[in-house]
Structure formats: structure tokens, C-alpha cells
């Protein structure tokens, strides 16, 4: 399930067909998304009443069209930074929540190093079992927030 | 999407087919490796890509950047062509092989079962770095391998990393090494051995967290890192007196540039007969183009474990 922001507020949810990967073609996904989004528009009565036709513009994922999942963007951003540093990725390479560590070229030694850096950055301790289940930046961010919350509790 | 250009020079699969090999006997390991830099032809890379399953191809295209895509293609092509060499039956070809993962995520062959035919107890494991991809094969014995570049550095401080992940004995060993370069090399060797063990077990990292076992080898015990290769053992941290004696290790220096660790199950039939050295044969390959047996040459230097290099002409 993914949520959609409308003008900075939660607009609704739509079911993604599958997770969007790095090189996945956007068009089928955005077509399906746009149908759902249209439904959200109509339910929310967003101010399009004066227009006879609805034109939908989807911004690229990185800018306006933000799909929010569990972790805060700030956490995801910090994880991206650590991953970039560990893997010595070029400035122009794309690292987002959806990025899979393996697809970025991380091997298990890199992953152990990334986990260690995340533990230090966030003051948490990651069990081997949890570390094993992390495959994307988003997974790492979600786990971090869970552990931070547990620490705070 | 990676654009694959076809050059004029074509490699015909029919004229350069895989050289068949008999399966390794029990207590022997076959080790195949490919150097990505030696694969320069885009048409050859296309041929390798063609061997992959749709799912594998999808994974290749998800890799970020041409180098990672190439590496992913070569890794899958190496596994497929290596296993297909053993001519398991007439149905098996590099393209026809199917793979699955066990419940812990360890890859294995999914044999197409037939009424009259039982698949051989073939085991394999792969490992890759940016400059070398390897596949180990055994029969009747679990196997795990790991390769790392000798020059690999880690971003964290070695002792901090070891304190976080390695066992107490291993941390003590690394701490006792005064020279930072030797310390780094020993760290990499330890890492490959530990990784190979966990991969051989096939239960994932949580099945055998790195902290819960210690790898000891001759140099580590005597403190003399120039001593000749001697036995490598693994012991459980919970019970140091219990040497986990089912497993044997080989540590190699490969192509002058990499450390490679191989962990295999000991043959139970050999128990009580003393330590029978395991035989190892190593090939450098460019599938469909050339295979070179490099055991006994400078490309393969055994630096740990009781293993005999088997040269097959």
C-alpha cells in the first residue's frame, strides 16, 4: 500500500502493483496509479470543479510525487548518505528508499559495515536476524525507526 | 537499460562448446573462476545473458551501472556453464538448469526429476568481487566459498569492526598484530574463512552469527604469519573445547590478487583415519572460449588448510 500526498496533506492510499525498482518502466505503474489518484481526487473534491476536463500531472518520484512508507524521509536520507559513503558511489548515482543494496553493488562485508555505521549513527543495536532481512534502504530506515522507538520506550 | 552492442567478431556457441568434465569424486573440490576484465566481447556477454532465466535477467537489469550488470551476468553464466559441464544427463544444458533457494536463502539446483533418474548429490556455491567471480563444486559435501580482493580496505577501523562482529579470540589475535598491513591482510583472510563457513552451513548469517564461532589456523596459533599452511579449524564460542570437527577449510591466494576460502564438510567415512587432505582442482575459465587448469601454478597458492593441489592435464 502506498499513500499519496495532495498539497502537502495525506490524500489517500492506493495499492501499488509491485514495488517500483530502479529500472522499472514508469508508464504502466503511473497509468494504474493515475486511475487510483483520479478516484482520490473525485472523492476528496479537490478544486477542479471549474474545469471540464481533468488533466493529471505526475511529478517524478524524487520531487513532488512522494510515496510515503513507514520511516521518516529524514531517516531514509541519512541511510542513503551512509550507503553512498560505504559504497563510494558517484555523486550522480541514484540512491533512494527503494534502492536495493545488492543492486548498488554491496556485498556482505559492505552490508556489515553499513549496519555498523547505522548503529553508530542512530545509537541502536541490530540483531543478525534483523540485519539479514534488510535488502533496501527503506528496510534499513524502517528497522532503525523501530529500534529507536524501542530504545525510547 | 544496458545497451549491448554486437561487434563483428561473433562467437559461435556450436563451435566453442563447453569442455565436459566428470563430476568431482568425494573428498575433492572443483573450483572455477572467471576474471571479468578478460571478458571484453559484447557479443560473448550477450551469449551469456541469453543463458539466463527471465528472473535472472530481471535481476541483472536492476543492477545499477554497466559494471554491476556485467558482473551479475558473469556470475549466473559461470554457475550455469560450470554445472552443465558435468553432463549430468542429456537434458541438462546451461540454459535449461533451474535454481531455487532453500528456506534460508541458499541457492541450489532444482533438478527436473524423472522416474528413472536420480540427480547427483552435487553442491555448489559462488562468490564474487568486482575483479573475480568463483564457483566451487563438490559431490556429497556441503560447500561454502568466499573471495575477497587482497587489497580490500574497510571503511571502519579494523579492530572496531572485529569487536562488533568477530569472536573474542579473533579480536585478541588481530589486536596482537603490530603491523597494520599484516593486520589488514589477516582480517581479510579471517573474514573470507568465516563467510565461507556460514555459506557452507547454508542457514544464513543468523544461523551462525559471526560472534558465535572462532576460526583458528596455524599462523594464528603460533603467531608466525610466515609459517607454512596448516590446519584451519572452527570452534564454537559457547563451548571452546568442542571443535566443530565436521568442517574443513582451505585458504588460497588466487591469481596473485585475491584470497579465497573454501569450507566443505568432512567425509564421515574418513573419520578415524587421520586427516586425509582434500584434493582441490582450480580452473580459470572464460566459458565457451577457454579453460585453463591453474592448480599447481603460481595462480593458486595454498596458504591455509590441509589440501593437495590436484593438477589435471
From TrEMBL, chain A:
Domain named Carrier: residues: 73-148
UniProt-listed SUPFAM superfamilies: ACP-like (SSF47336)
Signal sequence region: none
Pfam families hit by this protein: PP-binding
PROSITE patterns reported in the protein's UniProt record: CARRIER
Name of the protein described by the UniProt record: Acyl carrier protein
Role, per record: Carrier of the growing fatty acid chain in fatty acid biosynthesis.
Alphabetic keyword roster: Fatty acid biosynthesis, Fatty acid metabolism, Lipid biosynthesis, Lipid metabolism, Phosphopantetheine, Phosphoprotein
Family: Belongs to the acyl carrier protein (ACP) family.
Transmembrane portions of the chain: none
InterPro entries, per the entry: ACP, ACP-like_sf, ACP_chloroplastic, PP-bd_ACP
Entry annotated with the keyword Lipid metabolism: yes
A GO molecular-function annotation: acyl carrier activity
Organism of derivation: Nyssa sinensis
TrEMBL record, chain B:
Family matches, as Pfam families: AASDHPPT_N, ACPS
GO cellular component labels: cytosol
Key word Transferase present: yes
InterPro entries: 4-PPantetheinyl_Trfase_dom (IPR008278), 4-PPantetheinyl_Trfase_dom_sf (IPR037143), AASDHPPT_N (IPR055066), P-Pant_transferase_sf (IPR050559)
Domain 4'-phosphopantetheinyl transferase span(s) in chain numbering: 143-219
Keywords: Transferase
Enzyme Commission designation: 2.7.8.7
A GO molecular-function annotation: magnesium ion binding
Gene3D superfamilies from the UniProt entry: 4'-phosphopantetheinyl transferase domain
Source organism, top-level taxon: Eukaryota
Domain 4'-phosphopantetheinyl transferase N-terminal: 45-133
GO biological process: one example: lysine biosynthetic process via aminoadipic acid
Designated name of the protein: holo-[acyl-carrier-protein] synthase
Organism for this UniProt entry: Nyssa sinensis
Amino acid at each position: 500500500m502506498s499513500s499519496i500526498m495532495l498539497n502537502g496533506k495525506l490524500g489517500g492510499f492506493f495499492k501499488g502493483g509491485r514495488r517500483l525498482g530502479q529500472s522499472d518502466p514508469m508508464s504502466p505503474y503511473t497509468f494504474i496509479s493515475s486511475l487510483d489518484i483520479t478516484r482520490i481526487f473525485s472523492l476528496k473534491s479537490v478544486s477542479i470543479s471549474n474545469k471540464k476536463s481533468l488533466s493529471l500531472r505526475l511529478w517524478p518520484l524524487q520531487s513532488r510525487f512522494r510515496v510515503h512508507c513507514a520511516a521518516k524521509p529524514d531517516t531514509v536520507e541519512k541511510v542513503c548518505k551512509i550507503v553512498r559513503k560505504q559504497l563510494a558511489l558517484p555523486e550522480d548515482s541514484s540512491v533512494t528508499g527503494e534502492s536495493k543494496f545488492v543492486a548498488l553493488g554491496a556485498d556482505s562485508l559492505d552490508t556489515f559495515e553499513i549496519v555498523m555505521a547505522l548503529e553508530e549513527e542512530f545509537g541502536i543495536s541490530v540483531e543478525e536476524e534483523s540485519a539479514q532481512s534488510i535488502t533496501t534502504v527503506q528496510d534499513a530506515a524502517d528497522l532503525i525507526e523501530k529500534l529507536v522507538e524501542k530504545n525510547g520506550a | 537499460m544496458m545497451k549491448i552492442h554486437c561487434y563483428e567478431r561473433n562467437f559461435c556457441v556450436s563451435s566453442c562448446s563447453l569442455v565436459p568434465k566428470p563430476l568431482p569424486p568425494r573428498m575433492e573440490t572443483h573450483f572455477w573462476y572467471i576474471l571479468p576484465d578478460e571478458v571484453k566481447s559484447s557479443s560473448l556477454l550477450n551469449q551469456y545473458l541469453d543463458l539466463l532465466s527471465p528472473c535472472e535477467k530481471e535481476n541483472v537489469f536492476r543492477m545499477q551501472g554497466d559494471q554491476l550488470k556485467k558482473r551479475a551476468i558473469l556470475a549466473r553464466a559461470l554457475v550455469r556453464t560450470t554445472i552443465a559441464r558435468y553432463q549430468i544427463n542429456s537434458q541438462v544444458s546451461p540454459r535449461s538448469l533451474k535454481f531455487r533457494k532453500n528456506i534460508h536463502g541458499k541457492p541450489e539446483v532444482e533438478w527436473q526429476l524423472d522416474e528413472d533418474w536420480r540427480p547427483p548429490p552435487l553442491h555448489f556455491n559462488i562468490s564474487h568481487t568486482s575483479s573475480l567471480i568463483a564457483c566451487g563444486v563438490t559431490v556429497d559435501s556441503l560447500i561454502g566459498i568466499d573471495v575477497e580482493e587482497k587489497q580490500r580496505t574497510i571503511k571502519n577501523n579494523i579492530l572496531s569492526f572485529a569487536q562488533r562482529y568477530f569472536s573474542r579470540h579473533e579480536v585478541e589475535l588481530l589486536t596482537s598484530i603490530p603491523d597494520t598491513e599484516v593486520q589488514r591482510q589477516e582480517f581479510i583472510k579471517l573474514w573470507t574463512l568465516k563467510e565461507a563457513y556460514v555459506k557452507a552451513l547454508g542457514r544464513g548469517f543468523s544461523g551462525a552469527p559471526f560472534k558465535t564461532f572462532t576460526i583458528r589456523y596455524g599462523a594464528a596459533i603460533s603467531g608466525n604469519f610466515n609459517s607454512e599452511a596448516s590446519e584451519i579449524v572452527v570452534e564454537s564460542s559457547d563451548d571452546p573445547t568442542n571443535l566443530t570437527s565436521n568442517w574443513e577449510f582451505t585458504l588460497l591466494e588466487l591469481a596473485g590478487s585475491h584470497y579465497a576460502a573454501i569450507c566443505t564438510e568432512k567425509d564421515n567415512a574418513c573419520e578415524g583415519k587421520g586427516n586425509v587432505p582434500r584434493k582441490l582442482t582450480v580452473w580459470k575459465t572464460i566459458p565457451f572460449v577457454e579453460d585453463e587448469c591453474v592448480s599447481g601454478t603460481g595462480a593458486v597458492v595454498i596458504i591455509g588448510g590441509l589440501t593437495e593441489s590436484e593438477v589435471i592435464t
